[in-house]
Amino acid sequence: MRLIFFFAEFYVDGTTIPEVDFDVGPSWSGLLPISSDPNETRKASTPTDRKLFFWFFPPGPEGSLDDLIFWTNGGPGCSSLEGLLQENGPFSWAWGQAKPTQNEFSWTNLSSVLWVEQPVGTGFSQGVPNIKDEEDLAAQFIGFMQQFLKVFVELKGKKFYLTGESYAGMYIPYITNYIYEHPGALDLNTKGFWIGDPSIGWNVILQEMPAVNFVHKFESVFYLNSTFMAEIDAVADKCGYTNYSKTYVTYPPKGPLPLPGKSIYGDPGCYVWEPIFEAALLVNPAFDIYRVFDTYPILWDVLGFPGSFAQVQVAPVYFDREDVKKAIHAPTNFTWSECSAHRVFPYGDGDTSLPSGVTVLPKIIEKSERSVIVHGLADYVLMAEGSVRLQLLTDAPTGNNLQGFQTPIKEGSLIVDGMGTLGNVHSERNLTYYEVALSGHMVPQFSPKAAFRTMQFLLGFRSTP
Question: Catalytic site residue 182?
Fold first, then answer.
């Protein structure tokens, strides 16, 4: 039995996707409004009409008909089509590849997958951004999903899993919490969520505090001179970074984390992340904050973003080609870029929501059947020590009013079939946390087999993580 959909205006013929020399199978893509407001119709075209672009794939032959995965990239303002093309979609055009190839670890091998470019202002999505915080974002996304389910009615009632990476560490927890707090808003059975290398806390904890320790962990990769190392060590000592984890990471936790200083961004004189980045570029001009092992040559990227900096290409990026736009029902009179050049949170300093790790994340862990957080250990954008090991494991009370993990993470505990030890994994009270060695910021891209395994567990296809 297969899911059968109609709606020719959205249908994509899997044999006619440009540059793809194999049949990807049927899919559906296009624009849908964020609400049922008559002014936000599929045919409307004024700046106040806000519509999100989606690409939906039903499950492959081995996939489940009972589940639906939603995926979003982060940014804020970065396209989920990057995730589809280079992380977890059915065809892959990764950095350095001459053409697309089949992705044996596509999440469509598990279930239906819906990639959505959100919020408004991201990718092909249309209209003027008008959100101030994550509550606004969640409401607009749920409005879109309501319109989506009116079209794809066969998906109503499916088990629903929300997934994403990076700034989706804000998006996914707030959207999931919105669903739990508005139980009649969405005709889906929400089961859990997955976030990779997530932004879930204060900047001083996410980036500044762990940066020097991270450099020491990968000294042979950074290869910074002793003078510079002495300088950043002195800053880390002065600012309370050096022994912060050793002091406050205990099992069970002793209490909420204090800030290392007085500022959520870092005190004056305590900024080390940016100086380290600049020094690393002097030693290795191809240094990639998304995966620190990269060196010259910088691999060509069909999306124009193969590392720390966007690259200028002679040929247009894949999703900005007119033939690609026509094939997937995207607006042809629109310039697509992987990450938006304008702000998707347009007011003031941007997103006014507090970090998800200190607000909604503990709530949705408790309410979900399964929750998965994954982190690549070679990620310098958001380092595991600050992003998860501290923000989540010691500062997020969940079931039975217990705070954080009660027992330590066992090193070398993640065993991936056919690969051996590939990192660490730990489960307590609805939450399973994975750390993937060798992977950078985008785990489904850099370690697709490990990412696939984590999704098998989230969906209940594996009994153990």
Answer: no
